[in-house]
Amino acid sequence: MAQDADRMAQWLAGFAGLAVADEEGLGQRQPPAKAAAVLVALHWQAGAWQILLTRRTSHLRSHAGQISFPGGRIEPEDGSAEVAALREAEEEVGLPPALVRVVTALPHYDTVTGYRVTPVLALLTAPFEPRPSPQEVAEVFSLPLALALNEAAYERHPYVRDGVAGHYYALRYGDYFIWGATAAMLRRLARHHAANL
């Protein structure tokens, strides 16, 4: 995929029809009681499209050290998942909302911890210098879109949670181990892409 923002935006818009099946193998989940949103932001870097990701700080009470999209809980004043995702991205990595071209929101993803997460697909319209929040983000990095869309690259790992067996998916990129909800949402993109080639 060459660098062409309009063509990329059109391609991303096709994910609005993403078919969702309960194939992530998460087993028993809590009823989704908390709404959240994440920003799945694509940008052109090093001659290829990349996805913006963060590594959480090690001292956080939940998800410490994990790889995630910028994002968080939808607050009452946000009014929409898109606004929440943009606000959280600015707070976590210093991404100005003016540099973000929101394309579409994807079907929600329910986590085992009771969050209903709305992924918001977007393009960055210009380069920016990340300013990670020291309270939340240890590192900002980019994942090649080509790798994220390769369904064969995802590993399946068994687990047991509260006595219930299931599995989760993971994706390796260099020293990064991307797993859980982030990997599951990326894998949804890969599956949709593969089904529509």
Automatic annotation (TrEMBL):
Keywords: Hydrolase, Magnesium, Manganese, Metal-binding. Residues 31-165 form the Nudix hydrolase domain. Pfam families: NUDIX. InterPro entries: CoAse, NUDIX_hydrolase-like_dom_sf, NUDIX_hydrolase_dom. Its cofactor is Mn(2+); Mg(2+). SUPFAM superfamilies: Nudix. The keyword Magnesium applies. It comes from the Bacteria. CDD domains: NUDIX_CoAse_Nudt7 (cd03426). Signal peptide: none annotated. NCBIfam families: PRK10707.1. This is CoA pyrophosphatase. It comes from Vogesella facilis.
